[in-house]
């Protein structure tokens, strides 16, 4: 696999510099996914010739991009309200009703156009519409490009719990149009950059070091597009996640490493109120907490924890604990107790180690260390 990652990196970098599309093919269990990294959004005729059996799913922020994709053709659309607070069953039902009203058959294509919320909602709806239909993503945010659109995790929030309901359903094609990043507001860049940092931690310090010089330009994040280093980081993140999911689609082994920062982060999102923080802001905060847990358990070297924490601070993330938007540590702990990764009476966490990360478990009746971390009692 190491050779494959190097090969993909060279091919992707060449394609980005020469403005050529780069198409990668991966097998996730019984699913096959093609990933097209390109400059601009694809037109509907690039995706399918069967326009009448297709629906475009977007939100208020990406409705204009959906119009570009349709290229003047009359295609059923479902435009959802944007934001995490609308990542719920009502939005899923709206997609399903729209597809049914359009008379779409089982071999139809759901095309999700947007970031992580759209890909999660569209993917879940596609997985259950007539027991499963075709699925394509046009990923328009950094978060979607490096994480959410790849690998098949779908779902929505329920009972104030992040992603309580979901399925595994990889898209058959993922389009990554780099030019759409030019339109992102700063808050969306901040959300996506946290997932890029997470992946760099998992890959090792060579990747992590690439992100330090980019931080100086992050206040005007769209300027990062002119740096070859940033483009290399995107391709490395895509290749790494694909390699992990290829090995472990259903999240019982190596894929669990992709949850670095997420157990703490999801709990923070729930405790603060879903939608008050972006997913990336919560994950960045959660990565720092994971470093503290790794130090407490003896797995994370102090020097590596300091490097990771410093990088996260350089990108302007809130790193302190308790978090200003969720000072009730008991609420965060209760959210951790409800986390879907809890199994066999143990809490599951991913913590950085010497060169990557590892999974650790804590007995559900031994929460003193977690309480100390959430109260700010363990320092890096």
Beta-strand portion reads 15-25%
Q: In this structure, how is the largest beta sheet organized?
A: 7 strands, mixed
What strand line-up does the widest sheet have? 1-2-9-6-5-3-4
The end-to-end span amounts to 34 Å
Q: Please tell me the total number of domains.
A: 2
Quickly give the structural class.
Answer: alpha/beta
CATH topology of the largest domain: Rossmann fold
* Mean model confidence by pLDDT: 92
- Number of strand elements: 11
Helix content: 40-55%
In the CATH hierarchy, the architecture of the largest domain is 3-Layer(aba) Sandwich
Q: In sequence order, what are the helices and strands, one letter per element?
A: HEEHEHEHEHEHEEEHHHHHHHEEH
Unreliable residue stretches: 1-18
Question: What count of helical segments does DSSP give?
Answer: 14
CATH class of the largest domain: Alpha Beta
Calculate Rg over CA atoms.
20 Å
The 3D shape can be described as globular
Report on the structure:
The protein is 44% helix and 18% strand. The chain has helices at residues 2-18, 44-47, 63-70, 89-101, 116-128, 142-148, 186-203, 205-211, 228-247, 262-272, 279-297, 302-314, 329-337, 368-374; strands at 22-28, 31-38, 54-59, 77-80, 109-114, 134-139, 153-158, 161-168, 173-177, 346-352, 357-363. The protein contains 14 helices and eleven strands. It folds into two domains: 2-233, Rossmann fold (3-Layer(aba) Sandwich); 260-374, Up-down Bundle (Dehydroquinate synthase-like, alpha domain). Helix 11 packs antiparallel against helix 12 (302-314). Residues 1-18 have low confidence and may be disordered. The strands form three sheets. Strands 1-2-9-6-5-3-4 form a seven-stranded mixed beta sheet, with helices on both faces. A two-stranded antiparallel sheet has the order 7-8. It has 380 residues and is of the alpha/beta class. A hairpin with a 4-residue loop joins strand 10 (346-352) and strand 11.
